[in-house]
Amino acid sequence: MAWMVLVVSGVLETVWAIALDRSAGFSRPAPTAVFGVAIVLSMLGLGYALRTIPVGTGYAVWVGIGVVGTALIGMVALGESVSLLRVVCLLLLVVAGVVGLKYAH
Predict the structure, then answer these.
(1) Cβ-contact 5, 45 below 8 angstroms
(2) Which of 12, 26, 52, 79 has the fewest CB atoms within 10 Å, i.e. the most exposed one?
(3) Domain count for the chain
(4) Phi and psi at residue 53, in whole multiples of 5°?
(5) Whether residue 102 has pLDDT greater than 80
(6) Around Cβ 84, how many Cβ atoms within 10 Å?
(7) Global confidence as pTM
(8) pLDDT in the model for residue 105
(9) Contact at 8 Å (CB) between 98 and 72?
(10) Of 97, 72, 67, nearest to 82 (Cα)?
């Protein structure tokens, strides 16, 4: 259960990061509200997951999901540049993180 909550919390990190961008410095009410709700739920979920998952592993997974998710949304939906180098770097982040966490145990 903790892993499922951690993954959902990582996705919510992507939500709040995109909402933060769209809030235009908290001047737009709807994205600001989405940001507020998503960040609170994301932190609560992370806190819950860290009850049973080691903090280093949990935080790395949470941040990794947020980083990759935010970058992908930026490229796919928000018009940010897409290049082979950007995609390769995201893949390296995921692969290196998974392999590193697996062998660190």
Answers:
(1) yes
(2) 79
(3) 1
(4) -100, 135
(5) no
(6) 7
(7) 0.87
(8) 66
(9) no
(10) 72
Q: How far apart are CA 86 and CA 50, in angstroms?
A: 30
Q: What is the pLDDT of residue 95?
A: 87
- Please name the residue that has the structure tokens 């997974």: 61
Q: Which of 54, 37, 53, 64 is nearest to 5 (CA)?
A: 53
Q: Please check whether residue 16 is in contact with residue 68, taking contact to mean a CB–CB distance below 8 angstroms.
A: no
87: confidence class by pLDDT, cuts 50, 70, 90: very high
In this structure, is the dihedral angle defined by the CA atoms of residues 21, 22, 25 and 26, taken in order, positive or negative?
negative
How far is it, in rounded angstroms, from Cα 22 to Cα 1? Answer: 32
Read off the DSSP letter of residue 28: S
DSSP string, 60-92: HHHHHHHHHHHHHHHHHHS-----HHHHHHHHH
4/25 Cα distance (integer angstroms):
31
Find tokens 């893949």 and name the residue: 91
Which two tokens mark 51? Answer: 């009850």
Residue numbers of the domain that contains 6: 2-104
